[in-house]
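Problem statement: downstream parser choked on a complex file, so we are re-checking the raw output for the flavin-adenine dinucleotide run. The parser issue turned out to be on our end (a line-ending mismatch), but while we're here, posting the original submission so the record is complete.
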Amino acid sequence: MTTSGGIVIVGGGLAATRTAEQLRRAAYEGAITLVSDEDHLPYDRPPLSKDVLRGETDDVLLKPAEFYDEQAITLRLGAAATSLDTKAQTVTLANGDVIAYDELVIATGLTPKRIPSFPDLEGVCVLRTFDESLALRERAGTARHAVVIGAGFIGCEVAASLRTLGVDVVLVEPQPTPLASVLGERIGELVARLHRAEGVDVRCGVGVTELRGTDHVEQVVLADGSVLDADIVVIGVGSRPSTDWLEGSGVTVDNGVVCDVSGRTTAPNVWAIGDVASWRDAQGHQVRVEHWSNVAEQARVIVPAMLGAEASSAVVVPYFWSDQYDVKIQCLGEPEADDVVHVVTDDGRKFLAYYERDGAVVGVVGGGMPGKVMKARAKIAAAAPIADVL
Ligand SMILES: Cc1cc2nc3c(=O)[nH]c(=O)nc-3n(C[C@H](O)[C@H](O)[C@H](O)COP(=O)(O)OP(=O)(O)OC[C@H]3O[C@@H](n4cnc5c(N)ncnc54)[C@H](O)[C@@H]3O)c2cc1C
């Protein structure tokens, strides 16, 4: 069956929903079709490793069902896009349906990496979807020991939530500290301290060599020879852009869908947004961002570009957050691991640090210091001298 026309958005997450919403706000009156391989209405992912995992809410929908009716957005749920023909301007779905488009938006997000050499044992999981969060929560109800492999943001949040549920948690990270590659080791140490204070056994500078068990995982073996008991193993070693379905389409993929400054891909009438998209920045670098706030910023750019209108040229200071226990870690600007880090507050749990590059303030990271973090926005936007914030 071929259905036709208008703007087709492939993906059922934040980027897809924001794009559809912005299109209607911009008074676009043509057809909008949103194609998602998930059976759920589009939902928000940040709560999955936090409130949902801790059993505090199941309410994660980005918009109620009526929104899609009211806005005349056609939903194709449980429908994976399997290929794209950029000449015919059609997307083929797993059930054989073919959808024609005038403009196509790729918003397919990420697929968590697994560790191929590990056996496929019960109790070993990743966390990207609502169903995965519910399954992990259920396991946590009876588990005693969890091993979280990878101390990036998701690994740290999962460790915090499982610990809050009373599970014994070991957090294993081959880098010298949690979050070392994103925020550097100085702040990584403060994050490790936070977890240790809550009773998480943080093991850094060591990898995992083996998972043991028959049907269900029972033990995790580390490179230093330690053997850890585990009823649950969460693999949090990063994700890759979900682009397999674009193979052979002519859309250039290089660590994500390669886009210009407005989200236009290398194929005509094809755009990409969100975690899957690598946009060119003002300095000409391709940058792919895996954070929530970035999606709304991109939607504000891509929609006017698609409709041939002017986009706002406001300076955007990148922002993301991560909730671990009662501490909200916030990051404003573009700190990098090898920047000079000035820790200006550290009370043993909460902290505030400015990041300096070439004498200018390029970012601020706070743990439990929301007001202070947000106050630095103008200075970071202006790349003010570091002395201005110290
Ligand atoms: C557990 C977790 C916690 C997070 N916490 C934070 C946080 O605290 N702070 C923060 O800033 N960011 C956080 N993030 C990141 C944030 O959620 C993402 O940046 C955001 O979800 C990106 O939205 P997206 O629409 O690009 O991708 P996604 O939300 O991944 O949506 C992509 C959608 O496309 C669907 N799809 C994929 N392939 C196909 C296909 N072939 N056909 C049809 N549909 C397809 C997927 O199933 C999915 O529904 C978190 C992410 C996760 C997973």
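For whoever reads this later: The domain at 2-111+240-306 is CATH 3.50.50.60 (FAD/NAD(P)-binding domain).
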